[in-house]
Amino acid sequence: MAAVLAIHAHPDDIETLAAGTLALLASRGHSVTIVTATAGEGGSVETGPEETARIRTREAGAAAALIGARYRCAELPDLGVFNDDQARRRVTELVRWARPDIVIAASPADYHPDHEAASLLARDACFAASVPNYRTGAASPLNAIPHLYFADPIGGRDREGRRLKPDFGVDITGWMDVKRRMLAAHESQVAWVARQHGVPDYLGAMETWGRRRGRDFGVELAEGFRQYRHHPYPNGPALQEIVGEALLTLADWPG
Ligand SMILES: [Zn+2]
């Protein structure tokens, strides 16, 4: 059984982009941990940052619990995630605590600066977690760098609007119900996403994206992933193997 760690910037990002895959893996007995870089305390016009952080981390914990996953927050500031020394040590400590074989991180290119910085932090923390002299806290260093993957960016596009091609997909057709319930656990975000992002139907937008990605792979609903393969990260197909028959490959890519 594998230990899978999903790291993203804000509560609800992982639910939007990878919860179907996480639900599938949890159902097969793999252990799943979700970490957010921030508590998403900027995401409200009704409550101040401290109260919003409490609400949103509680919602993230409830979403994770739906698939038996653990949840932790690195408590970096919302809209203040940077790939600096303090933040890297904090994320590295959480990677060491989670002890993953596989890490699913935010896309390096995405619409939000916290997403992009959280991606760099996760990437570099995977490396740093295995360096014994890199001191972070109570958790002991990892014996090896975990396999690293990037989820799709929001809407599948970079800041220039280019569609980013996934290396492979996961068929989540049987897992949309769980994914919807996980995202719905982020109750405080429904009003915020409508106001700030002009998206009145938060859950519907997530499902529409899943159908769009599904069409790329010729199935009803899918999530896409890319693998980080640079030296010295392991480049074997760890995630591809454990999703089994749900693994999808692209027949062609119109761009
Ligand atoms: Zn986000």
Task: Characterise the protein shown here.
By secondary structure, the chain is α/β, with parallel strands linked by helices. The protein is built from 8 helices and 8 strands; from the N terminus they run βαβαβαβαββαααβαβ. An 8-stranded mixed sheet has the order 3-2-1-4-5-7-6-8, with helices on both faces. α3 crosses α4 (113-128). Bound molecules: zinc ion (ZN). Residues 9-10, 13, 112, 115 line the site of zinc ion.
Instruction: Please give the share of residues in helix.
Output: 40-55%
- The low-confidence parts are none
Largest sheet, strands/sense/barrel: 8 strands, mixed
- Gross morphology: globular
Q: What is the arithmetic mean of pLDDT? A: 96
> Gap between N and C termini, in Å?
36 Å
Following the backbone from N to C, one meets helices and strands in this order, namely EHEHEHEHEEHHHEHE
Q: How many β-strand runs?
A: 8
Total helices: the number is 8
Percentage beta strand: 15-25%
Strand order in space, largest sheet: 3-2-1-4-5-7-6-8
Alpha-beta classification: alpha/beta
Radius of gyration: 17 Å
Q: Bound small molecules, which ones?
A: zinc ion
